[in-house]
Records
---
Amino acid sequence: MLPHLNFAESNINFLGRRRIAIAFSIVLILASVLLLATRGLNFGIDFTGGTLVEVGYPDAVELDPIRQQLDEGGFERATVVYFGTSRDVLIRLPPRADDPDQAELSNQVLRALEAGGPDGVELRRVEFVGPAVGEELREQGGLAMIYALFGILIYVAVRFEWRFAVGSVLALVHDVALTLGFFALTQFEFDLAVLAAVLAVIGYSLNDTIVVYDRIRENFRILRKEGTEFVMNNAVNKTLARTIVTSTTTLLVLLALFVLGGAALNNFAIALIVGVLVGTYSSIFIAAAAALMLGVDRKVLLPVKKEGAEQEETP
Amino acid sequence: MRNTYPVWVYALIALAIVTGGLYALPNIFPEDPAVQVANSRTGVVDENIASIIDVILGAQGLTPHRIEEPDGQKLLRFDSAERQLRAADVLRGALDDDHVVALSLAPATPEWLRAINGRPMSLGLDLRGGVHFLMEVDLNAVIGTAMERYTNEFRGRLREERLAFDEIERGARDLMIRFASEQDRAQALTWLRRNYRGELNFVERGLGADSSLEVTLDAEHLTELRRLALQQNISTLRKRVDELGVAEPIIAQQGESRIVVQLPGVQDTARAKEILGATATLEFRMVAEGEDAPAAAASGRAPAGTRLYYERDGAPVLLQRRVMLTGDYITGASSGIAQDTGGPAVFINLDGQGARIFSRVTAENVGRLMATVFIETRTETTEEDGELVRRTSRSEEVINIARINEPLGRRFQITGLESTREAHNLALLLRAGALAAPMSIVEERTVGPSLGQENIDRGMQSVIIGFIAVMLFMVLYYRVFGLIANFALALNLVFIVSILSMLQATLTLPGIAGIVLVVGIAVDANVLIFERIREELRNGMSPKAAISGGYERAFSTIADANVTTLIAAVVLFLFGTGPIKGFAITLSIGVVVSMFTAIVVTRAIVNLTYGRQRRITRLAI
């Protein structure tokens, strides 16, 4: 049996260090924005488009040796798949800064394929695939995201209070910014799977923040005589066991995905791992601190006497 | 504070588990890579060919592991994609042109599951392989087509109404009606305004004998026309894809002028492109009898009111400019043999309106010659000066000229086709309907299934191992309650899979991201409850009170967190496209399901475990 985490009596002063935490986060966010602005994300072929090369062989071929030949010929990150039959192969090359014109490029590919490969390879077609999908997706996706943020703002503002709504969105922006910043820093490839992971990070961050806020609201009702900072600290401490356990279980799945999931899922898993770590940090150190700094206290949360009715149920 | 549920709640949960399990079941039967052989004319593969197939494949050591005969076709199932591809190659080489050899993935769902409509969920391109086309619809052509239609309509209707005009000139985006006097113009304008309100805008130009009317499309009407054109193209594409026999195709609008076509499991891009890219339609025009066609061909100038066409053999023919009937009214087409001539023919069915128009115009023209014009639009990419240029080519050809012996109605036949194969192709293209606006393929992607398969296998393995680790952790940490949470978690996955299968939603990699998040959320719900129960126990509550207290306290937290996530997911679903939608679908389903499993189901099990005991001294949590 595992020992229980017991933070029932703990009273770690998280909020007392809120200025350090917030300053730390602001520095990290600024660094992320700076990295995104200067280095940018290393967008994968989903976003950038690339060149399609169709080749034909006289006999059935294996794909792995072809990938290796292309690698050796200087075409890293090429996607190689069958195209209709086992003799026709479609190669997708990501665009590069120093790409020669189409004719030269196809020659280079052909040379790479002829070097040590099966004889009789024939170049059938070279076609440039534009990044239009990526752009459209970025626009549409961005809009969808903004609408989603509004939805969250409204719901949290109605169920809690507008300061909590702003706080939860801030925590969310914080988590996404740092995750993206991480990708700008490491220059890991940012493909569709990573985009999906970022969406998942948003969901996770939201879940985490709401849990803490919910406890703060409850604490204000129970701990009637305590100050705002104490009430919030107590809420973070009370939810600490839950925060750690949930992060641990989620990270267990993600680590399995990272270690065993294969190259295709690597970036996806990394994005989620970073997102979960950042999200855990922000739900402990930032979510409550942001709410406090926005001016949340008992008065804004429990303004009317009708709350007294609910009070009866709470022992 | 009693820890029991009414019996109906248990019954409901049991029912949900049985239904969920049943509809999740089709997913454990894998799909077989298969080769489909069909006769392109009759659709039925005869005994003779069937035995040839057996012999050829046997000789190559490529015997399929199962052969089925849906609708007289041959469906050969293989145990690997490699063997499937090789078999298709061999068969294509061996069989004549009358046989179509297509690659497909055949579901192996047992009969009794199919009977209750149990189908496996569809896997997206990223997981399963297939082709992806992005097609651009030329919406400017919509204006051109509309202007053409109005020009023809005005010519006829203004005459019918006895409204005098000189001529109508069609521009690219507008048309100009010229009048001999301002009075004529004023009369025509009154009538036009009344009949085309909201459709067209009219501007008066010029004075006296120079009077004219500039006609343009109303902005709102144009938007509507474009919307309809895009819709018609989508439905036409859908019909064509159905002809290809692809399972679960995705055909969706993207942006304002684009259509995404995804054909999972299809590896034969060339054929897919042929069917998607080529469009064919028919037009019926009267032959301008008495005009000198060879002279017009020589000078390149057709007399007023006529257009120069060519027949199959290259002979020029002059047809009236006015179209009697366009292909838009064709509802059905089939190929066969004409009874009178014995040659290949296409039998055509018209819709009600088309039949009315056609019988009227043919009745007016009995005894005269009518031509059938075959119009084909193809998008081709050609290389010019080292650059790839994409262009649409439109070919118009007179395939048949016949004397109208009697008014033609809803059903009639076209002859004059070269071969039965051509008749068959024409029928297929006509069946697939006309496109409202020409399209070109902007992007084409092929994802190999062998590459995808490896990814799925590794991904699935790692997810399963991750789950086992989580479950182990939960049992070690929460003991009996951990076991209960694990059951709920597993159930959660079964429910998500069964709902995705029932909805026939497509699972993609982003969808899997959604599921991973749902697992996190579902575990979190249980962690919140269990931590609360522990807290209540520490506060000195009795075990029974702690259980009900824990569930009650955690409920508002779980509800708030989940509803917020659900709102975000629903909004993403409504406004997002492609991968974002895929993520949002699984997340929305997952959040709702996890509320049910993590709160209701675990509570039911806890109730069954602890609710009946009169006195519990301690909880294994």
---
Amino acid sequence: MPRGSSAPTRRALIGGAAAAALARPAIGGTPPRVVVVGAGFGGATAARCLAAGGIDVTLVEASERYIACTGSNAVVAGLRGIEAQTFGYEALGRTGLRLVRATASAVDPAARRVTLGDGTALAYDRLILSPGIELRFDAVPGYDARAAEAMPHAWKAGAQTVLLARQLAAIPEGGTVVLSAPANPYRCPPGPYERASLIAHFLKTRKPRAKLILLDAKDTFSKQKLFETAWAKLYPDVLEYVPLAAGGQVSEVDPAAMVVRTDFAEVKADVACIIPPQRAGAIAAQAGCADRSGWCPIDPATFESRLVPGIHVIGDAAIAGAMPKSAFSANAQAKVCAQAVIDLLAGREPEDPRLINTCWSLVAPGYGISIAGVFRPHDGLLADVPGAGGVSPLDAPDAVRAQEAAYGESWYRTITRDVFG
Amino acid sequence: MRAPHPALALLVALVWGTGARAAETRPPPGASACTGCHAEGSAMGVLAGRSADEIAGALDAFRSGARPATLMNRIAKGFDAQESRAIAAWFAAQAPR
């Protein structure tokens, strides 16, 4: 579809409900240029919202297809195929934005220019970075990119997810799975615990003599009471949880020997999933947007970097206060950021936003739990709106658990269509 | 199910124009996140084109607990009655196709 056309495709319409809602700025002459780096839940959403708002937008993405992390724990546990996580960019290309398949290798904030891997330079009036995460292969002794081939993290979905699923499917009777969760902050706070739940479900139903040891570098986690209550009910003989206080922090791994060490124990694993600490995607640091934490401080109303004017950071890479690193958060932040960018380019004051996050976790097939939050800027960060949000009731009947599982699945279909068409 | 999605052409016509006009047609705070769940084909249903009274009434009922919910009760408490009406009016103004 040509830019500015008022004859959108049906698929563009379906996916673009929010995009369509964004207002077109009144700007004379050439339209302002926005470059978006990263076509995940955040970047793809921002780009299509900007395109719908009449902005000249270029979306830079190295991958041919997007493989979603959200929902990928079900792939690990053999409940669905990786194809259910895989999305093309064809529909995005029909929304009027320019999709460039390339790696963004450098940003020059002073010249307002992004350089691509082939040396091409893209000029921008505003830049939105949505680079997701980098795994920190310097954080756990012994755990580097090579070790991840033996002990998959599967925290970026794709080959790693399939590898872990294959390893799990091949585990011997009476085998041991070790799963480690990092300290905060990291992508998808409840993700390791959903993964533990679904691996436990797999073992319970397929390898009943096998065990799962969940080593945690912290003592508290998202939806904790809900998970622990479910584990006690569903997986009492399968899942052993070891919090930080009980020695859950992984101090070293030996992928050749398939050994995971803590300060107190050495565990021989048949399958080891090590989820290491993370930081913002590399281009964010290259652009100067990441602070010493490795993540990117932002203005909570516009998502403009606190460190580099003219660059906005959304999604997992951003320090978004109380708002967790989730696909829903990235999508919601992208919509707010895109509107703010449109407003700023048009010389209008961006509104004080309100953002929502919802997240369902599957504990077993037909057994879902959720957390929700409503957020607004407060003291320079995104903060919970008092009285709102929270988790599913601890005493909910089975019918509610089943309904939450169904809603989680429905949300996955909806959000992926909203983002990828 | 209600007709699924807003007519983009109409919206573009609505928002095209002066900066002031465009500013008026910005979604009210919180509204843009709703379509993360409420879209065509979802179990949660579509909001675009529903009446403002229906949407605002549902938010009020979720907030008070009068209407059972798995999750919307927790979200509705993030918006007061006035904010809910603004969101409702905005979705109601989007004509379903």
